[in-house]
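Tokenised fold entry reproduced for everyone:
>
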Amino acid sequence: MRYIAFGLTSSRAVGSGGVVRMKLARFFWAVCALICILIAVRPASPDEEQIAQRTHDEVDNAVRRMAAAFQQRDFRAVGIEGRYFIYADEAVADQLAEFVAGGNAIVRVASIHALGILGIDARQKLPLLEESLRSDSDEDVRMEAALAIAKVAWLNADDAVEELIHALGDKSDNVKMATLSALVALGQHAVGAIPSIESVMMTEDAHHKIRSAAILGLARIGRELDDPEPVRHIVDANDEDLGHRAAFALGELGEAAAPAVPQLLHAIQKDPDEAVRWAAPLGKIGKAGKPALPVLLSFAADDSHGNLAREECLTAIGAIGVASTEVLEGLTTAVRNPKLRGAALRAIAELGTDAAPLAKLVSDVLVPEDDDSDWDDWPNRREAATTLGRIRSRDASTIGALVKGCTDTSAVVRYRCFNALSDVGVFNNATYAAADKGLGDWDSGVCLASAALLLEQRPDIERSAGVLIGLATKDLKRGETNVDTILVLGANRELIPRVEEVFAAILETGTPYAKAVVTQSLQTGKWKDPSAFKASLETLLSGDGDYMRSSAAVALLNLFGRHDRAAHVLKRVLLRGEIDDSWFALKDVSESKSAALASVDTLKLLVESPYRERRQTAKRAIESIKRK
């Protein structure tokens, strides 16, 4: 009888001819045992790593490190320590709540900040945060509690808004500022707070920064409601600082501020010296600001007004975007005035192809008929080149002027001319000769623009590609970032063999800005060797800043289809409810099929976002998934 158990074999059962078999059996079972042990103890690879359950001591140490960073006002360190909680499970919220209830002030601040990082996963702790905002004796704790409430409660914010309204009466200006920020972050959910915010705004003895923040808060909440009423009457305020803020706030409203156009025009006519202030929001209203054009044109043509105010009116005319006969005539007059020429050219550029009748006029600024290319006037020649690219006229005189501008004495003008030729999209012997010559330019920007133009014409891919790779490699060695170089390489990766090699090197040793641009390029399309980027992108998942982390996450999902850590990071950023980084992350997700598929449950939550643009973007992303 023979029996084998975990490599232990009976010698009596083996017999004289079975020694070798016995040793092989022992070896086999020993290897099996070793493999079992290795499987049991091996760390999960980053893409397999699940969201870890944190031990009590780990959470305690993380909170204390963050508290020390808060105490030293080292907010970069706060962000670094906060990365720990991005990968924490929801159970951590219970321990953080214990610290909020029993820790010293700085530990309470750090713990509340960590609850904010957990976002809606910590929503069961909302009553605790509200209590901290209402009654904590420490100002910093109350500030952090207000901000955390907005991050935790934005999906169901009715009770939270009531607490924040109450906090507007806090004795601390800093707490009031944090509370206003929190209400703004709640968007349309904060509509019930408008009367209270108006009251803060109209309190004459309040600090001007509080009143200014209240005006901007009203505008941003009003933007979600298409209602300029909360701020439009501030146009008539006698307080100069409030007036400037009101103008900026109306600009924030965009088209929703159209009902305020008569008041803005009245303000310009009443006090021409303040036209700089009131013309800006008119431009941001867009085509709804068309009734303002006669006043703006008249003001810009009046030599008795200051040039700065006249330039602001020209800027508004371009931004309104109506290329009527009167507007084109007024801009023609302004271009002929050396003091207004730059602003007039920028206004024409805003009109785009509708300003095609002015192409000859603009070409004459780029290449004067008397061929007197004065160095001192290079800023206007630069604007003229950019404007021709926006007008996109294919008239022979326009193309001729741009080709001639490619040999301008100013490198900036040459660079803009090559870019404009690319925008216009006319490729002939003259444009090819100009671009070919530009490859040898002493200025790297001109070389880049020349190479990009040649790649579009496709006559000499190898030479253009060599220039681009050389520029990117030189930037990498110098620790510099040229965004245009990276974008051109990414757009032409199928034509340029070494793009993936260069991008992998940038992700490993490039500047943070260069890494961010590369991750953007990796978010779309197919790449030959995605594994070349994987390790670096996974490192960026724990990098500085929500945007860098979310950008790397979208890139990983695009490259590999599934990546658990990336999907989790994306969820945490998207559901943070903050104004900036989560919005950028959502736009990236909406443009990536893989990221949208990985985030579909989160997108369904964002359909209830307090921000209209986010709701619409989330809906479009979901509909796109269904179509595909």
Observations:
- Residues 378 and 410 are 7 Å apart (CA to CA).
- The chain is about 70% helix and 0% strand.
- Residues 4-41 form one domain.
- The radius of gyration is 31 Å.
